[in-house]
Amino acid sequence: MKSLLVLAAFSIIACNTNTPKTTPAPEPPKVPVNNNGVEIAYNKKGTGDTAIVFIHGACINKEYWKSQVDYFSKRYTTVALDLGGHGHSGHNRDSWTIEDYANDVMATIRDLNLNKVILVGHSMGGEIILQVANTIPDKIIGLVGIDNIKDVITSYNPKQKKEIAHFIQELKIHYDSIVPVFIKQSLFPPNYNDTASMNRVINDVQLMDSYIAIQTFTSLTNFSLKDAGLLSNLKVPLHLIVSDYSPMNEANVKKYCKAGLFVKTIHGTGHYPMIEKPKEFNEALDQTLQEISSGK
Questions:
Q1: pTM of the full structure
Q2: Residue 10's pLDDT band (boundaries 50, 70, 90)?
Q3: In a designed cystine with 51, which of 59, 114, 213, 227 is the match (CB 3.0 to 4.6 A)?
Q4: How many Cβ atoms sit within 10 Å of the Cβ of residue 135?
Q5: Positive or negative CA dihedral for 104, 246, 279, 261?
Q6: pLDDT class for 28, splitting at 50, 70, 90?
Q7: Which domains does the chain have, with CATH numbers?
């Protein structure tokens, strides 16, 4: 009996040894994305007909969208990119404006051959998605701003101009020490408990090339004065998911959104709800995407 068991075991081993092993199909080579000589790093996941392009804010990177890429790539093609000068994208240019960053996004859409695109832009990304949507409207089926475009201004008064100039000058002289103060006081609620998210942002902004950061902030303050015209020319509604740590002037923004404005609010977070409350944020974004697909 024992010999029969040994023979049977040997036969199983022999059969397994002779069974050809299957080799997983190799992944297709990653398509390079290039904007006028600047390589754009990106993460692409999913195979849906509709593409969600995630655009980060100033001085952070595509990894802030990891939870969203993992969640939405089951139904959509998702692309999270590093804007030029950020993350793993190239630094080899001299201009760091909102228009340059919009060109990074449009190069990504072009080189990856994306057509039905929903743009999701956080913070500065709100200005970028407005520029992209006004430049290539036929590609864009939806716009979602994340904690941005909470008000529309068309000019700065003398006091505001002086404050902006002082802030930029302080960044040039004391970048590393100004960054944490600004982030804690302006981008999170007072006495905020989520120190892990706060410290992540501070660390990433401090690691940013200060020259690029300052050029970016300067461009952002100038470009935001164009919001009224860009909003008025949109062919699709603007959807916003905002945090309640700072006020939203919905009535003022709505005046300019001729194609429609829809606002959802995340409570109890700072400026980065996608990393602070990813589950709640994903649910809000999921609902927004469903509204966009239904024509709202």
A1: 0.91
A2: very low
A3: 114
A4: 15
A5: negative
A6: low
A7: 34-151+226-293 (3.40.50.1820)
